[in-house]
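A reminder from the course coordinator: this example appears on the midterm review sheet, so study it carefully.

Given structure:
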C-alpha cells in the first residue's frame, strides 16, 4: 500500500482540491470507548431488515469505512509531507470478522481517508464472493473544482475501479444541503452539470442498483428532494440521515440550522423510503459521556456498554434499513455485533429513559463537533477539531473554570484547562491563529460557526491567562 497513487484522486477534485480532499479525511485511531467485556458475539444471530424495493436482507449493523485503522504516518520524499497509510491487514481482519458474523453492508466514499478508503474497502471485500456483501459509495464532488460533468463522471467511474466491482448496490449524492447557499451548491453539484440525470441513467443500466442521498444541512433541500420523489420527477430508493437519541429532538436546539432526526425519519417513513443511519454515536460523543451519566446508564444495564444504548435506539425504528458504525478496533466491532445479534428493541420506558439522558447531555452545552475532520486542513494550520474537542472534554470532566475566581475549584480547573490545552493542541495550532477566513464553515456537517467558536474559545483562554473574574 506504500505505492498508492494519490495524484489521480486529487486531479478528480480539481484545482484547489487538496484542502477539500483532506477536509474529508477521517482515518484515525479512535479512543476505545466503553465496550462489553470479553464476550464473543454469536454467529448466525444478526438482525436483518428487508429492503422493500430489492427484497434483499440487509444487516442492521452496517460497516462505515470513513474511519479505518492506520499505520504510522509515512514521509513522502517528493512532497515533503507526511501521508496516511491504511493498515490493510487489520482492515481485512475486521471485514472478515464482520462478514462471518452477518454484516453485509459496507459504506465508503471517494474522499474518505484522504482518498484511500474505496481502495482499501475494495481490497478487503474482493476476497469474498460478491453476493456476500452490498457496497455503498458516493458522488463526493464537494469542491467547486469537481463540479464539472467530466470530473464528476471520472469520480463515478473510478469508484468501480477502486472497489473492484461492476455494479454498486447503494449510490448516494453525498452530503446534500450544505454550504451557505445550499440550493446553488446543490444545483452546481448535480443539476447544472446533468449529473443527477446521468446517475438515473446508470441505475436504469443496472450499474447502480439503488440511488439515494445523504443529508446534512438545509432542510429545504431535503424537503425539495422528497417533493420530487412525490411528484415522480426523481425516485429515491433510500436516504441516509443522522439519527441518534440526542438529535431526535435536540438537533435544532443545539444548532438552529440543523434538523431534528424525528422529522427526517418520519418524512421518509411515510413515503416508505428506507433510512440508512449515520452518526448513531455522534462521532463518539454518545459513548464518551460524563461519569455521572455513565453511572446512570450502568445502573439500568450494568453489563452493557454505554454505546449499546445509542445503537439500540438507532436500530429500533422499523423504517431503518441499516445503522452505520466506523469500527476501527475489534472491540468496537464485537460490541456492536453483540447489540445487533440479535437486536433487543427499546421499550417505551427505555425510550423515556434515553430522553432523560439526552436532556442531561444537552444541558452540558458542548460544541457539537463529531471530529469528522471535514473542516481540515485549515490554511492557517489550526487544529480545529483538537480545539473544539479539548473544550468539550473539559466540560465533560468538570474542568471548566467558568464560575469566576471566587469559586473554590477555580484554580484547579483553570490549571487543568490551560495545561491540557497546551498538551493537546500545539501553540501554533490553537484558536488564537484563526483569522476568520471562513473556509471551514460551509464544510461542517454539524453547521458549527467555526470562526465564531474559535474567537470565543480564544477569548476564554486569554481571560484565563489574565486570571480575570469574568470568564
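Designed residues:
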Amino acid at each position: 500500500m506504500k505505492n498508492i497513487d494519490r495524484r489521480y484522486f486529487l486531479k478528480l477534485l480539481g484545482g484547489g482540491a487538496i484542502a477539500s480532499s483532506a477536509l474529508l479525511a477521517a482515518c484515525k485511531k479512535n479512543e476505545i470507548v466503553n465496550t462489553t467485556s470479553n464476550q464473543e458475539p454469536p454467529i448466525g444471530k444478526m438482525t436483518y431488515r428487508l429492503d422493500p424495493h430489492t427484497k434483499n436482507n440487509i444487516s442492521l449493523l452496517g460497516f462505515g469505512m470513513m474511519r479505518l485503522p492506520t499505520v504510522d504516518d509515512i514521509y513522502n520524499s517528493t512532497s515533503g509531507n507526511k501521508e496516511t497509510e491504511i493498515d490493510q491487514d487489520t482492515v481485512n481482519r475486521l471485514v472478515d470478522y464482520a462478514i462471518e458474523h452477518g454484516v453485509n453492508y459496507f459504506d465508503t466514499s471517494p474522499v474518505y481517508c484522504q482518498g484511500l478508503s474505496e481502495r482499501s474497502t475494495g481490497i478487503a471485500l474482493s476476497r469474498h464472493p460478491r453476493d456476500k456483501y452490498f457496497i455503498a459509495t458516493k458522488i463526493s464532488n464537494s469542491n467547486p473544482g469537481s463540479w464539472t460533468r467530466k470530473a464528476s463522471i471520472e469520480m463515478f467511474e473510478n469508484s468501480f475501479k477502486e472497489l473492484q466491482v461492476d455494479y454498486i448496490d447503494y449510490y448516494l449524492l453525498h452530503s446534500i444541503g450544505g454550504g451557505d447557499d445550499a440550493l446553488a451548491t446543490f444545483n452546481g453539484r448535480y443539476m447544472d452539470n446533468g449529473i443527477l440525470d446521468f446517475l438515473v441513467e446508470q441505475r436504469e443500466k443496472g450499474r447502480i442498483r439503488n440511488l439515494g442521498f445523504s443529508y446534512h444541512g438545509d432542510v429545504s433541500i431535503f424537503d425539495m428532494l422528497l417533493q420530487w420523489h412525490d411528484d415522480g420527477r426523481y425516485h429515491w430508493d433510500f436516504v441516509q440521515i443522522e439519527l441518534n437519541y440526542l438529535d431526535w429532538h435536540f438537533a435544532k436546539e443545539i444548532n438552529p440550522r440543523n434538523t431534528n432526526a424525528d422529522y427526517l425519519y418520519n418524512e421518509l417513513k411515510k413515503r416508505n423510503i428506507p433510512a440508512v443511519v449515520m452518526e448513531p454515536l455522534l462521532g463518539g460523543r454518545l459513548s464518551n459521556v460524563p461519569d455521572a451519566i455513565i453511572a446512570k446508564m450502568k445502573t439500568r444495564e450494568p453489563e452493557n456498554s454505554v454505546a449499546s444504548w445509542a445503537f439500540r435506539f438507532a436500530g429500533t425504528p422499523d423504517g431503518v434499513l441499516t445503522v452505520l458504525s466506523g469500527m476501527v478496533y475489534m472491540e468496537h466491532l464485537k460490541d456492536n455485533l453483540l447489540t445487533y445479534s440479535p437486536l433487543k428493541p427499546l421499550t417505551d420506558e427505555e425510550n423515556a429513559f434515553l430522553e432523560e439522558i439526552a436532556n442531561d447531555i444537552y444541558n452540558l452545552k458542548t460544541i457539537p463537533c463529531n471530529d469528522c475532520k471535514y473542516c481540515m486542513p485549515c490554511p492557517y494550520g489550526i487544529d480545529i477539531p483538537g480545539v473544539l474537542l479539548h473544550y468539550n472534554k473539559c466540560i465533560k470532566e468538570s474542568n471548566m473554570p467558568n464560575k469566576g475566581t471566587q469559586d473554590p475549584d477555580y484554580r484547579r480547573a483553570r490549571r487543568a484547562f490551560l495545561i491540557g490545552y497546551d498538551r493537546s493542541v500545539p501553540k501554533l495550532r490553537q484558536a488564537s491563529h484563526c483569522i476568520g477566513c471562513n473556509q471551514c464553515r460551509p464544510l461542517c456537517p454539524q453547521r458549527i460557526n467555526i470562526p465564531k467558536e474559535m474567537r470565543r474559545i480564544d477569548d476564554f483562554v486569554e481571560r484565563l491567562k489574565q486570571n480575570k473574574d469574568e470568564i
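Confidence is low (pLDDT under 50) at residues 1-26, 28-33, 75-80. The longest strand covers residues 168-176.
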